[in-house]
Structures are given as C-alpha cells and as structure tokens.
C-alpha cells in the first residue's frame, strides 16, 4: 500500500474535577446487596445458557464451574485436538467506566484484567499472551481525541512493551457519539474512551486450569489476596460508587508493570507445584464480589478478616478534636473497610493449604509481591459469608441469601423472555441449601476398554457420519467412533442424493447434531423430509433399517430427524416427536442423566449409571401427543435415558430437565435395540476434559476417557 499519509489532529486536553468518595453515606449491608445485583457483577446465566458452548467437542472450560454449575470462570479454554492436553485460552478485559476519570488508567486496567483472567489457565509465560485491542472513542468531541492518544500511548508504548506482550490485531470505532432533537433542544450522548481487550495464549495442559471453586475436602486451607494494586485502594469508577452515585479523585491503574509480571511468574511456579487449589481475579465488585463468587461456586461459607487491608497510611494525621476521637476513628475504619472490600484494583484471590503457607510466600517474595499479599480468610462450615474487623464480625449473611441476590438480575431478565414457570423453578432451586450438586454414579468400569480385541483388526467396520446442511457435530462424533474401532466416513446428504455414496456400503449410521436447514421447518423436519419426499432416498433408508446387521444412532438434530423417520424404522412406532422446550428457549447446559435398562446396544452394561452430559437444543420435549405411544415405550422398556436431579431422582423439574419431557425421557430405542435416538450429546463429552465439571477421581481414567466412551465401544463389540 506504500506509505499512506499520516493524519494530523490539533487537539486539547480537558481536566475534569471529581469529588472524593464519602464512605459515611455507604452502609455496608446495602452496599453488598446493591453491588451483587448490579448487572456488571450479577450472574449472566440468562445469557450463557442460550448459547451452544460444547459444539465441536474441543471446549474444556466454559463459564460454568463446579457441580452446581455457577457461571464464574475467569477464562475460556479449548483443546487443540481430541487426543492431547495442549490447548488455547481466551479472556477479556475492560474498564470503560474508569475512563470517565482517567482514560489511560482505564486502558491499562483492561490489559491487566485480561491478563489476570487468562492466567487461570496453564499459560507458561506472560510473553506468550497475545492481545486484540478494540478501541472506541467519540473523536472530534472536546478532549476525547487527547484522551484516546494518551490511552493508546499508555498501552502501546509503555505497558505492553514493559510486559513483553504484543498486540498484533485490533479494530476501532471512533464515532461513539449520537445527537438528536427533543422538543427543539439538541441532546447528545458520547461514550467514554473504551478499550476492550481480548487475550489469547497457548495452554500447556488444559487439566491444570484453575477455577474459583474452593477445595472443601482439605480440612485446613487459607485464602490469600495478591493485591496487584499495591495496597492503594483507589475507588473511581468502581461498581460501589456507581450504585451510590458517587465519584472519587483517584482511579485504579497499572502503575508497576513489574509487579504484574512477577505475579505471572509466581502463579506459574505455584501451579507447577500444585500449591493453588482455587483462583479468582478481583475485578467488578472488588474483593467482596470475588469472595462471594468463590462461595457460590463451592456452596460453602467464607470468613474473611480485613484488618490487614485496612491499615491506614495516614494514621499519624491529626484526627481533630480529641473529644470526637472515637467517632472519627470509627468513621475512618468504616471508610477503610469499604475501600478494602469494593476497590477494583488488579488482584487475585487464591486458596492454598495452610501447611504450605511459608512455601507459597517464599515464591511470592522471590517475585517481589509478598508485601502486597495477605492471608485474608478461609472457608467455613456454616455456609455464611462473614467479614471480620478489629476482632468483631461486622457483617454476616447466609451464602444462599447472597447467591439469590446475585442471581436475581439474571432471573428477572429471563422471566421477561422465557417461560416464567421454568425460570421460577430454576430460581427457587437455590433455596435448597443441601443440594449435593451433580452426583455421578457408575455401574461399570470406564477403564475397561471392551473394544480392545477389535482395534488391531486390519479391516474396520464402516460407519457413515451422516450430516445435512447446518449439521455441526460430525467431527467429534467421527473421532469418538474412530476411537471405538470404526472406520468413519463423512457422508453428506448431497452424496446420497447424487449417488456418490450408498448406505448399503455401511454397517452403521450416525445422524449428527446441529441445525439442519436452520430448523426453519422445525428441528430435523427439513432433513427428514429430504428423505421422505424422495422415493430413492426413502427406499434406501428403509432398506438400511431393515437389514439385520445394521445399526444407527441419532443425536440431537439427528434424533429429531430420525424420530420423523420412525415409520421407516422397525420397532420405532412408539417413538415421540421432539418439539419446543417447555422453557420456550434454547437450552445449553451440563445436566445429569440416568442410563436405563433397555434393549439398546449402545448402553449394554451401563444401566443404572448416573452421568453428566452436555445438552444443546431448543426442541427436545418428547411429545407423545404428536406421535408415538408413551405406554408402549414404558411397557417395552424402550426408554434408554432420562434426566435426573442432583439427588438421582427422575425429574421433569427445570433446569434439571431442561426441556420438560415427561418422566425425564430424553432417549429411546427400538425393540431390538439396534436403533437409538437421544437429545443429549455424548460425542461432545467422550473425554473428561470436555466437561465443565467432572469428579476429580475421573482424572485417573485410562487415556482420559470419560464413561461416555463406553457406549461407542459397545457398538463396536455388537458388530462382532
């Protein structure tokens, strides 16, 4: 492109003045409740569960953490392939409200937040992190051009070079202002200078990703706050100032890049020595929100002591009239408490074993950050969040009450959008303080590879991985079947229509999940009608299903499609039609199912097992009013799988049953067991690392295989 001309802009800086925060007007209890419900801090589950996060089978860490699936993860992690444990991590950082007070500081904080988020993953060096910078500003408005220049300079010329991090890509939107007329008056809104950072880095081992879920099995553990703001507790732009309509004179920033760099090195060493049990960054909502989210993810209480965070550098200052000394000291301690709990300086809370405290602090000291690291508390057994100061408990509330406040914002939004009965059911489930979370139970040994005798055969049975326009789960399905010992072949419906491939070449067929024809005719309807309305294809599928040596599996969209072909499938007359979820929403979750005793060849030896599995569908309700016969399904034991709650009981209750199917039904088979359809996605969770949560002992399974690989191996054994 040659050398494009450089733009020259003559701009002027503006200097706004802001009043300091008045903490005496902030009640601690009111502050906690308001901050937890502020949309920036509150649960985002209403937004997360409507997006498919397991498609492709390479996702290892999504927002939902732990057996209670609480959306508090710091970063996303994917694997590079279906075999190893190397992967990639992604995170984001933004601090736009801070830009109203100090735009360069906000930009640097966005970079810092992205880094503290992504370091939850096993990133070996801070220099491995690459950034994408999305700049937004209202250029041309008074002072905004100068703020943008200073912010870009602070990040691109100062902070990132000091950290050894590059920004190879980004974009900008520089017209962030709007003007309109209202009753002959000109009105205008401009956006502050905004930097949205997306961070990316290679991950050495996805199994070492840290989460906010506390380890409650170890008796004596502690929480350490690593304060990367270096004990400054600046408040401008924080959530607590927003909810109380206040400002402050100083904004948080990244003043010492070497501290952030030292932290990255320290956390890498601590992870390598397995000293960190849990990890969560301090960001929106400050330390209070950070600690609360760790409690929510763990369903346990936390007690913290803020004494070390309330040391006042101004203690030698005159408090004033000695007659008012007690009230002045009390007011100062209250201000220090508010600042300690709600400042949003960079920082991280980690959980360690108390016996390893000296070893942990030795590493922190080596990296120059021990002076800013404080033991602040520990988990407690009474399921309450307690805040102690000066040997007194200044705040105590049940974890359940606070979690419902934190969930309330998401609940109110979802209730306006979805079926309110379902939304109410999910919200009310939080009242169960004894909820054990997902509780898997196995009736077989997942370490036993029953297909081993057939893996060395030179000729593998051929299986068609069938897909249509919009199907997107074929790759992970093909790999699962390949692991089980099949020769997998990618077969598109256009191949069958054109005669390039014929089903008589295959012993098995798998109809995969996705959105065939965008589900515009109903989920799986267009795919099925492509077959039913074409005599050549209809005859071909009927012949395949009627062969005594054939078998087939339909998953999600493939399940919906095959249920529409039930008249072509021997023994499938009782199958239901799968229609709109009762929640009236697309559901993407990790849920519990029970494998039932049925003729299905896929589930031989698995009956009675309770397992977590991914679901991702909008039309999974088993509707016997449209077709099929539920009594025949029950009497002939054709139900192959059903949803269960956290107590292992079959359920229609949302969200444990995400589509509301009667009796929790989510998988059916034929009378001879050769053909099975199911709405959940076993092909997306055939490895333990593909699940957002699984029991720790499953790490010991051979080759990292999850129990779901058994159903694919069962099919291989059946062939012989």
Question: Could you describe the 3D structure shown?
Answer:
The chain is of the alpha+beta class and 720 residues long. Among the domains are: 216-313 and 323-435, PurM-like C-terminal domain (Phosphoribosyl-aminoimidazole Synthetase, Chain A, domain 2, Alpha-Beta Complex); 452-719, Rossmann fold (3-Layer(aba) Sandwich). The chain is 29% helix and 22% strand. The protein is built from 19 helices and 28 strands. Strands 19-18-20-21-28-27-26-23-24 form a 9-stranded mixed β-sheet. Helix 6 (257-272) packs antiparallel against helix 9 (357-366). It is globular, with a radius of gyration of 29 Å. The termini are far apart. Mean pLDDT is 96; it is low at 316-323.
Characterize this entry briefly:
The protein has 19 helices and 28 strands. Helix 3 (103-118) packs parallel to helix 4 (144-163) and helix 6 (257-272) packs antiparallel against helix 9 (357-366).
Brief descriptors of the model:
alpha+beta; 720 residues; globular; Phosphoribosyl-aminoimidazole Synthetase, Chain A, domain 2; 29% helix; 19 helices; nine-stranded mixed beta sheet; Rossmann fold
User: Portion of residues in helices?
Assistant: 25-40%
What is the highest CATH level, the class of the domain at 452-719?
A: Alpha Beta
Main beta sheet: 9 strands, mixed
Radius of gyration, in Å, reads 29 Å
In what order do the strands lie side by side in the largest sheet?
Answer: 19-18-20-21-28-27-26-23-24
Structural class designation: alpha+beta
Please mark out the parts with pLDDT under 50 across 5 or more consecutive residues, or reply none: 316-323
What is the H level of CATH, i.e. the homologous superfamily of the domain at 452-719?
Class I glutamine amidotransferase (GATase) domain
Number of H/I helices: 19
Shape: globular
CATH topology of the domain at 452-719: Rossmann fold
How many distinct beta strands?
A: 28
Intertermini distance: 64 Å
CATH architecture of the domain at 452-719: 3-Layer(aba) Sandwich
Percent strand = 15-25%
Q: Mean pLDDT across all residues, rounded?
A: 96
